[in-house]
Amino acid sequence: MSFTMHFLGTGSAASLALGSASAVLERDERAILLLDCGPSTPDRYGAAYERLPSAIFLTHAHLDHIGGLETFFYQATFMQAQIKLYAPVTLVAMLHARLAEFPGLAEGGKNFWDAFQLIPVSNSFFHDGLVFSVFPVRHHAPNTAFGLALAGQFVYSGDTRPVPEVFAHFGAGNETLFHDCALNANPSHTGIDDLEREYSHALRQRMYLYHQHDQDDADEIAKRGWRVLAPGARIALGA
Prior knowledge:
Shape: globular
Distance between the termini: 6 Å
Number of strands: 13
Helix content: 10-25%
Number of helices: 8
Strand content: 25-35%
CATH topology: Metallo-beta-lactamase, Chain A
Number of domains: 1
Mean pLDDT: 96
């Protein structure tokens, strides 16, 4: 059994070239879980896999991480398919307000959620025979953003300020660590100076960074010795 994390996009909300931050967990070269779904994600997912995703996990309800769900709604509706959608339970009302209150089809007859099997989750959930852990992070407001971990394989921050104690806990094995990191910090996102100050050397050695504003910022972070992800990157995880 082998796992790979395939990054479809690695940019912030303002980055068109880097694409919406989104990744696909692959198991034995088979896509099993899409992490987040921004506006550019459906096109990039379709180009990579030529089909709809079977399942999606959402880290939070900002549109650069959920805006592509409307596209998948149309595609799944007309293909008569359904996509599993794992969402932290505190996000469900926000997701409904942002995505599902306005009728999706001019012809009517379909609710937004008809295209998705909505599965609210809290601390953990089962998928594809695996147990995933869900944990809160620090982004914008309490209990509105979450990360994801698979023991022995990866920890994925989603959008966050530094959470070193969380990464030390869920990354206590030899997990590969994926962390939101911009060149400059702001009240909702980690900056490179934050990362270098807050995280231990042992954790930093296992980190890959994503969610930059543009390629210039990504290049500046890389010059400081960090592994910065590019769109299309595939990172092999543990066995």
